[in-house]
Design brief:
430 residues; N-utilizing Substance Protein B Homolog, Chain A; Alpha-Beta Plaits; nine-stranded mixed β-sheet; four-stranded antiparallel β-sheet; 15% strand
Length: 430
């Protein structure tokens, strides 16, 4: 594929996300398989993320530099200009790649008459750099207000970390290898990675890499999973052979991690969406774990339709949430999230806690977890559940899991390089 063609693909992905409300993950899932060269796929993905983390800055720069603003009919061209600016500003590509290929992409978009304009704007960016802007400008005002109320001393750090590229966190499959052995394989492949002091399966790398080409990836020796998500297995702290329910299992990383640690677990994994549950099945198959796991398309808030009446030793409730702790990985969250979403999510989370609690055996636990940083979804949601549930109490989690936050623990984005995440371990009195 030509350099111009890959820029066109990136521009069309971004046009769909920025101007038509589409999901970045969904658009990339459609676009990337069309690119035969793994380098083209990596470039398009890198451009998309760099652009979405900085699109407010780029829009401001174009407003300053252009005598006449682009109109609605120029959405695709605007996205392509952002593509060019991201290559110069973040990716630091050589000028011939960043400018020439992007100008050629203008022609592929049948906008030959605007090639000179794009060339001039990108040349100016090379000379002057893209003007700085406050990272908070990309956040909706209502969401910033919530962050300031919940984390007044940390809001600036949350915002700044959310525009930074995330490191790659790997999880060695201990049923097939050891972390140290896998680290040696990475070193031989020229990938630098460091072990984490309190995450026994985790390796962190700041190198860029094509995940599918990682040593042993196809054979199931390794997975990509943020350090914060890897802490879930430690927070559950399961006994050997425990009967476990993963109530929102897709795409399967947490279920797989539990089974890698203890193949004797009796795991049931459910998800309301059949296609998403298929991802769980694919994940377990690649990692060669969970041959006896029970996978069911089911609604977590209606156990009467699927539960066999046998209680679980542990239930993992990785609840649907605002995803405000993973903005650096899903920057389009700031484009698509609405304040009304939070109210709806709070209702769903509460219903899920109430519906699944009867499935926990006396003495058993439910781990409530989210990738949110909003206290309404986290500590206040758990406090409300404890207040209305007479046989529930909260176990104390140590500071591996973050700072104390109500009855649980909260990690904020960027702390130890991890995503934002909340954990509360709830125990049923016997």
């Amino acid at each position: 594929m030509s350099g111009a063609a890959s820029r066109v693909v990136a521009a069309r992905v971004l046009d769909a996300v920025l101007h038509r409300g589409r999901s970045l993950k969904g658009e990339l899932a459609k676009a990337l398989p069309q690119l035969k060269d793994v380098r083209d796929r990596a470039l398009v993905e890198a451009i998309a993320f760099a652009t979405l983390r900085n699109h407010v800055r780029y829009a401001s720069a174009l407003t300053r530099w252009m005598p006449k603003p682009l109109g609605k009919r120029d959405d695709e061209l605007r996205a392509l200009l952002y593509v060019g600016l991201a290559q110069i500003d973040v990716l630091k590509l050589p000028s011939h790649a960043a400018v020439d290929a992007t100008v050629e992409a203008v022609r592929e978009l049948k906008r030959v008459h605007q090639a000179g304009l794009v060339n001039a704007l990108l040349r100016r960016a090379l000379r002057e750099g893209v003007p700085a802007a406050d990272a908070a400008d990309a956040w909706p005002a209502w969401l910033l207000d919530r962050l300031r109320a919940d984390w007044p001393a940390d809001v600036d750090a949350i915002v700044e970390h959310s525009v930074q590229p995330a490191p790659t966190w790997l999880r060695a499959n201990r049923s097939r290898t050891t972390r140290d052995a896998y680290s040696d394989r990475l070193q031989l492949a020229g990938i630098a990675a460091t072990a984490h002091a309190t995450l026994p399966d985790a390796l962190r790398s700041d190198d860029s890499m094509a995940i599918a080409t990682l040593p042993g990836f196809a054979d199931g020796d390794v997975s990509v999973q943020d350090g914060a998500a890897q802490y879930v297995a430690d927070a559950l702290d399961l006994a050997s052979g425990a009967r476990v329910l993963d109530a929102c299992a897709a795409p399967g990383g947490k279920s797989a991690h539990l089974l890698e640690r203890d193949p004797s677990l009796r795991l049931t994994a459910i998800d309301i969406d059949a296609k998403r549950l298929a991802k769980v099945r694919e994940t377990l198959a690649r990692l060669k774990v969970g041959a006896d796991a029970q996978l069911r398309v089911a609604d977590a808030i209606d156990p009467s339709q699927w539960w066999d009446g046998v209680p679980f030793d542990a239930v993992l409730i990785d609840a649907p949430c605002s995803a405000t702790g993973i903005v650096r990985r899903q920057p389009d969250i700031l484009l698509h999230r609405r304040e009304t979403d939070i109210a709806n999510l709070l209702v769903l989370q509460g219903r899920m806690l109430d519906a699944l609690w009867p499935l926990v055996k006396p003495g058993g636990v439910a781990l409530y977890a989210t990738c949110s940083v909003l206290k309404d979804e986290n500590e206040r949601q758990v406090d409300a559940f404890l207040a209305r549930t007479s046989d529930a109490s909260a176990d104390e989690l140590d500071d591996r899991f973050g700072r104390a936050s109500g009855a649980g623990r909260q990690r904020l984005p960027g702390e130890e390089g991890t995503d934002g995440f909340f954990y509360a371990r709830l125990r049923k009195r016997g």
